[in-house]
TrEMBL record:
The lineage of its organism: Bacteria, Pseudomonadati, Pseudomonadota, Betaproteobacteria, Nitrosomonadales. Pathway: Amino-acid biosynthesis; L-methionine biosynthesis via salvage pathway; L-methionine from S-methyl-5-thio-alpha-D-ribose 1-phosphate: step 1/6. The gene is mtnA. This is Methylthioribose-1-phosphate isomerase. It is an enzyme of class 5 (isomerase). The keyword Amino-acid biosynthesis applies. Catalyzes the interconversion of methylthioribose-1-phosphate (MTR-1-P) into methylthioribulose-1-phosphate (MTRu-1-P). Also catalyzes the interconversion of 5-deoxyribose 1-phosphate and 5-deoxyribulose 1-phosphate. Part of a bifunctional DHAP-shunt salvage pathway for SAM by-products. It holds the Pfam family IF-2B. The active site is at 237 (proton donor). NCBIfam families: eIF-2B_rel, PRK05720.1, salvage_mtnA. Keywords: Amino-acid biosynthesis, Isomerase, Methionine biosynthesis. Its EC number is 5.3.1.23.
Length: 345
């Protein structure tokens, strides 16, 4: 099944509602920057590359919405749209990467009519989407070569087609390995509290007929100690210039366990997720989400009333625990600052 996480239809952006998967499969329509920002904030769309693609369409939608305004009002409205999108979520750098790219395109045609600007921005958003799938497939080929036939691979969160425009980063590696004829089985961490592993990764792998076993997050150490994990592959929301990796909360714990058990720990990472402006993971902004997500799930709450709750949505894995970054330009083993500088030269 081809998963179209985001699609352009009837002059609107449609996104699969990832809050309700797998119980229901529904698209939600968007027609402005503020509505797309709300879709990102509320997790209708999530996953770093998908957030970037959504933001690109948010900019294009805003231009289409404002194209009959005076040039002055168009410019003011567009600036506001960029700011609203930038404030939607803080950690995934793909959001800011996509907004910078769209602003560059806007500036390059700013002298032209608003309608022309809007069409140019829409064409760029389509290109960001198509490029994301091409990049995932390139990463998939490099990553697949790292996995031996028969590998049992643990992943955390959802870095699949649902987290991108299609194919996926970490799950793209599994798809590419299977396409290359390898027997791969996946161990999916449930990924508390939003359950991206149980709901989204498990759903994607089941759709794809790739064998998948679901475990709760606190079972990863046991599985590794039993010799049931051959490799770990995860995605990332932002990689600092020294190779430190921010990803879904719990990834750091998996990386420490993998090192303890001599299991390779790979991070599938498009170049758009590397933030060379940030020296180390210590400076990556970590989103804190609502305490309701930890209290329980949806309407069901099980935590004791009155308890203090923390809900950091991401953590940082130091570069020293990363066996390799799988990028669209190849695999960077033992990533560090000089290797990442070289990658962008
Ligand atoms: O909070 P989420 O669901 O947006 O977090 C997603 C992740 O942590 C993914 O692993 C990451 O964005 C990489 S997606 C290819």
């Amino acid at each position: 099944m081809k998963v179209e996480t985001l699609r352009w239809s009837h002059n609107q952006l449609e996104m699969i509602d990832q809050r309700i998967l797998p119980a229901a499969f529904e698209y939600v329509s968007y027609d402005s920057a503020s509505s797309v920002a709300e879709g990102i904030r509320s997790m209708v769309v999530r996953g770093a590359p998908a957030i970037g693609v959504a933001a690109a369409y948010g900019v294009a939608l805003e231009a289409l919405r404002l194209q009959s305004e005076s040039m002055a009002d168009f410019n003011i409205g567009m600036d506001a749209g960029f700011s609203t999108l930038a404030a939607s979520r803080p950690t995934a750098v793909n959001l800011f990467w996509a907004l910078a790219r769209m602003r560059g395109v806007w500036e390059s045609v700013a002298e032209q009519s608003s309608a022309t600007v809007a069409q140019r921005l829409l064409a760029e958003a389509h290109e960001v989407l198509a490029e994301d799938i091409r990049i995932n497939k390139a990463m998939g080929a490099y990553g697949a070569a790292l996995l031996p036939d028969g590998a049992r691979v643990l992943t955390h969160c959802n870095a699949g087609a649902l987290a991108t425009a299609g194919w996926g980063t970490a799950l793209g590696v599994f798809r590419s390995a299977v396409e290359a004829g390898k027997n791969i089985s996946v161990i999916a961490d449930e990924t508390r509290p939003f359950l991206q592993g149980a709901r989204l990764t498990a759903w994607e792998m089941v759709q794809e007929n790739i064998p998948v076993t679901l475990i709760t997050d606190n079972m990863a150490g046991y599985m590794m100690a039993q010799g049931e994990v051959d490799a770990v592959v995860v995605g990332t929301d932002r990689v600092a210039a020294n190779g430190d990796v921010a990803n879904k909360i719990g990834t750091y714990m998996v990386a420490v366990l993998a090192r303890r058990h001599d299991i390779p720990f790979y991070v599938a990472c498009p170049l758009s997720t590397i933030d060379m402006s940030i020296a180390s993971g210590a400076s990556i902004p970590i989103e804190e989400r609502s305490e309701d997500e930890v209290k329980g799930f949806r309407e069901t709450h099980w935590a004791a009333e009155g308890v203090t709750i923390r809900n950091p949505a991401f953590d940082v894995t130091p570069a020293e625990l990363v066996t390799g970054l799988i990028t669209e330009r190849g695999v960077i083993l033992c990533p560090d600052a000089p290797k990442l500088r070289e990658l962008f030269r």
